[in-house]
Write a structure and sequence with these properties.
This is Purine-binding chemotaxis protein CheW. The protein is an alpha+beta fold. It has a single domain, classed as CheA-289, Domain 4 (OB fold (Dihydrolipoamide Acetyltransferase, E2P)), CATH 2.40.50.180. It is built from three helices and eleven strands. The strands form two sheets. A six-stranded mixed sheet has the order 8-1-2-11-10-9. The protein has a five-stranded mixed sheet with strand order 3-6-7-5-4. The chain is globular.
């Protein structure tokens, strides 16, 4: 009985998260992450540097007793570093029970982008598009939809 109730609740939660994306800004581009990966959004905080990590991994933070690595998404994409300010946020995501903080210029909004409004990115350069899962069309704008697994694992 409890198992059935739990699976029904999980199914409902999946339905409410379907086609929902947290959008954020890096420079002039808008990006989106499937809301199912997002656990919370926090302001920028003190980051402890850890030696011998890739440059885009800024270090670790202590979030209520959990140690979480933080990645500067600008640096991950090969963009120029930008000083953190009061708009800079950390989006904490959970991908396969791995918590990671993504440092972004600012968070925009949660929005619905129906699956039929998401197209495959053009095949210009495989290495540049490897983190982009799709392009969401929202009115006259586009949002670059990230592939969280590739962002964290590649």
């Amino acid at each position: 009985m409890t198992e059935t109730l739990t699976s029904e609740l999980e199914l409902r939660q999946e339905e409410t998260q379907k086609d929902k994306y947290l959008t954020f800004i890096l420079g002039k581009e808008y990006y989106g992450i499937e809301i199912k990966y997002v656990t919370e959004i926090i302001g920028i905080q003190s980051i402890t540097e850890v030696p011998d990590l890739p440059g885009y991994i800024r270090g670790i933070i202590n979030l209520r007793g959990k140690i979480i690595p933080v990645m500067d998404v600008r640096l991950r994409f090969g963009k120029e570093f930008k000083e953190y300010d009061d708009r800079t946020c950390i989006i904490v995501i959970d991908s396969d029970n791995i918590l990671v903080g993504l440092i972004v210029d600012s968070v925009w909004e949660v929005m619905s982008i129906p699956n039929e409004e998401i197209v495959t990115p053009p095949d210009f350069n495989e290495s540049e598009n490897k983190f982009i899962k799709g392009i969401g069309k929202t009115g006259s704008e586009v949002k670059l939809i990230l592939d969280c697994e590739k962002l964290l694992m590649d």
